[in-house]
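W.,

You were right to be curious about this one. When I first looked at the sequence I had no strong expectations either way, so I just let the prediction run and decided to look at it fresh. Below is the sequence, 165 residues in total, followed by the output.
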Amino acid sequence: MRKEPNTDGFCCADHSGRASVQAILAQAEGRAQAQGARLTPVRRRTLEILLQAHGALGAYQVLELLARDGFGTQPPVAYRALNFLVEHGLAHRIRRLNAFTACPHPGQEHRAAFLICEICDSVTEAAAEQVGAALERAAEARGFHITRATIEAVGRCMHCREAGA
């Protein structure tokens, strides 16, 4: 299912709530600066695209939208920007979908779980501190050190359940 960004000035059309794109961009700018990094125009536009998307977008979808804005048509343009956003906690990679989604609260350190609708592919970020702590305890009990964990759950979002899909 191909997704186009919404254009209503809000992010999180993924059923997790509606927050101002501008407010999230300001938080992202602050986080990048605190990490000694910079949101270049292409990185900022990539983040805007992700914030306006319904669900997660693949790198080539992002590239197509960046190209429309004059940022180039070569895949490294999108991949570099997406990798930067993920590295700095401004976006997340959804492995199940091989896609990316913006972090709706980049100004906060947090653990997240991603709730993926099997019907519409929407992605909702949910707090996962307790799940992450349980995972760390289980790993520690086995002498394992976790360097990265992505928690993804698949089911049906409220809208698809209500629609009887």
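Here's what jumped out at me. DSSP finds six helices and seven strands in the chain. And, maybe more interesting for your project: The chain has two domains: 10-102, 112-162.

Coffee later to discuss?

I.
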